[in-house]
Design a protein that fits this description.
By secondary structure, this protein is α/β, with parallel strands linked by helices. It has 11 helices and 8 strands. 37% of the residues lie in helices and 14% in strands.
Length: 279
Amino acid sequence: MSATARKTAPMPDDIRAMKGASPIVSLTAYTTPMARMMDDYCDFVLVGDSVGMVLHGLPSTLGVTMEMMILHGQAVARGLQKAMLVIDMPFGSYEQGPAQAFSNAARIMAETGAAAVKLEGGVHMAETIAFLVARGVPVMAHIGLTPQSINTLGGYKVQGRGDQTEALMRDAHAVADAGAFSVVLEKVPASLADRMTAELAIPTIGIGASAGCDGQILVVDDMLGLFTAFKPKFVKRYAALGAVGEAAIAEYAAEVRARSFPGPEHIFADAAPQKAPQK
């Protein structure tokens, strides 16, 4: 499904139908200008709870609130016409049970216009996923490294190696059987991600997984080189905009201090004196 061929944004069923047919392209976005930039190229755009670290300087995603997700979701929605909008459910907004999850998911969708929500977890979230889907809330699942569980996982480690392999496979099948229309695989060994892609009827979206996944997603600020606090192994930087921006700011500061900016072309002259009316 090419960007040029699309006239309207795809829906979750369209993303599901892309499995095995066309690689699914996705990025995160948090602002209207960034959403506009990627709208022609992405099949879906995710407003990730990574916004807490990338834009708000939080040490993890755990401090992200519903209000933050809705605010950034509304901003991204204004920049999209062709790509589907998916929004992360933040930590604490769905873990209490299916009823809590539905209440918050319904609020996110109603206030942003998102087509779907994403939530983290495997077997233990299957009941919640099924509850949401049965009530009209499309769900993108997320397994492997789940950043909201970072305190119990013991760090940002690869998931699914050794004794963890079959447990993670059970997670994958559980979310698919529960009705998720796709599943994000984060920091999963390539061979296991390929196995999941082969066995699941829904698309797999890789981030630090395998090129064989049905799609890929990256945090846009990572791939553009805007976020430079750290660089995960799975990130390829397609630009170094952070360095370009810093150089531009340094040049601006130097010109202000030298009083060479603003120049004549940047300021406004006094109004020309009006001619006295002729008698």
